[in-house]
């Protein structure tokens, strides 16, 4: 027979309402009582029905993650982190792909919220900085957490010092003797693109070097845009072409490595290539990619935990800075 909430309450010697409070992780339960109820739940194998839980509390226990990002590797890491946080606190996660440039973008989010009733949202770039959407969320009183927002004042979520990380990556290339260092810029709507370009320029400036406009090529964070950008770079005269390419994410860096082979260039003998994010593709290509390790999974998890802290009435949440690290692998080497 299916174990009922009332059975758990009887075994723990408490009221059904107390069991419900423990299940919903409410604050007004003593530690001793909480321990007794959880022990009974575990011993009896009780699994509350999500619909019944929602009906009893008039809450959805849903967190929705909104995205519009061409990098599936990055997105998978973020979503995995959000899901881990939701599982930890017995929330469900909804995922909603969107086109941030659509004329009815805000209306679509509005309708999504009205239909599914998520208690809060996790916003990913570039949605995280969409001014009209943020205004509408404030108007509706919908709580949200942000991953890597441009504006952080008064926000909760997770971010990384991306300009510093990009600067250190370019300094690594400079230390290897590279002087013609190209940069493939990310999608213009993303704050990350601006920050990584800033770090690239800052490293060159600190080394007393000017930034050659011919070596800065626009991409959009996709593998295909990395290919297009690399074809432009490798078509430059040999004395003006790059000896190293810093792409603003791993997907574009993989496109650069593919295009190097297309042009008869060996990586890293003829050209060094590095990326940003340290997503799975960095390990799946050869040579393995030198990149910045951005803890994307942790950023999704931390952003969701900050949101859940608010939704569960445990605090106001915070904007949490996460650390980065350079991962030096086989795709970079001293300049020829």
From TrEMBL:
CDD domains: HTH_LacI, PBP1_SalR. InterPro entries: HTH_LacI, LacI/GalR-like_sensor, Lambda_DNA-bd_dom_sf, Peripla_BP_I. GO terms for molecular function: DNA-binding transcription factor activity; transcription cis-regulatory region binding. Keywords: DNA-binding, Transcription, Transcription regulation. SMART domains: HTH_LACI. The keyword Transferase does not apply. Pfam families: LacI, Peripla_BP_3. Residues 3-57 form the HTH lacI-type domain. The keyword Cell inner membrane does not apply. Transmembrane segments: none annotated. PANTHER family: LACI-RELATED TRANSCRIPTIONAL REPRESSOR, LACTOSE OPERON REPRESSOR. This is LacI family transcriptional regulator.
């Amino acid at each position: 027979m299916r174990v009922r909430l009332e059975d758990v309450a009887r075994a723990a010697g408490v009221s059904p309402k107390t069991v419900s409070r423990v299940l919903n992780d409410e604050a007004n339960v003593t530690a001793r009582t909480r321990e007794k109820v959880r022990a009974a739940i575990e011993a009896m194998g009780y699994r509350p029905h999500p619909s019944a839980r929602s009906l009893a509390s008039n809450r959805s226990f849903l967190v929705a993650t909104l995205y519009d990002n061409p990098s599936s590797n990055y997105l998978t890491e973020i979503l995995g982190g959000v899901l881990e946080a939701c599982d930890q606190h017995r929330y469900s996660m909804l995922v909603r792909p969107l086109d941030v440039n659509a004329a009815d973008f805000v209306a679509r989010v509005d309708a999504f919220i009205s239909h599914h009733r998520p208690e809060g949202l996790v916003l990913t770039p570039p949605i995280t900085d969409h001014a009209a959407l943020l205004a509408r969320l404030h108007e509706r009183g919908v709580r949200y957490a942000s991953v890597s927002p441009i504006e952080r004042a008064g926000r909760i979520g997770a971010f990384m010092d991306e300009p510093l990380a990009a600067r250190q990556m370019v300094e690594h290339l400079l230390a290897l003797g590279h002087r013609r260092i190209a940069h493939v810029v990310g999608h213009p709507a993303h704050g990350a693109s601006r920050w990584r370009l800033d770090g690239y320029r800052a490293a060159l400036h600190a080394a007393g070097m000017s930034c050659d406009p011919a070596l800065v090529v626009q991409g959009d964070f996709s593998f295909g845009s990395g290919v297009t950008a690399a074809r432009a770079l490798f078509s430059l005269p040999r004395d003006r072409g790059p000896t190293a390419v810093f792409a603003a994410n791993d997907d574009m860096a993989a496109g650069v490595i593919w295009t190097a082979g297309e042009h008869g260039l060996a990586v890293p003998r003829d050209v060094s290539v590095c990326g940003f994010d340290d997503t799975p593709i960095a390990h799946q290509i050869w040579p393995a990619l030198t990149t910045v390790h951005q803890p994307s999974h942790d950023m999704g998890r931390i952003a969701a935990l900050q949101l859940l802290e608010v939704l569960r009435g445990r605090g106001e949440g915070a904007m949490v800075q996460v650390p980065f690290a350079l991962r030096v692998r086989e795709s970079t080497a001293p300049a020829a």
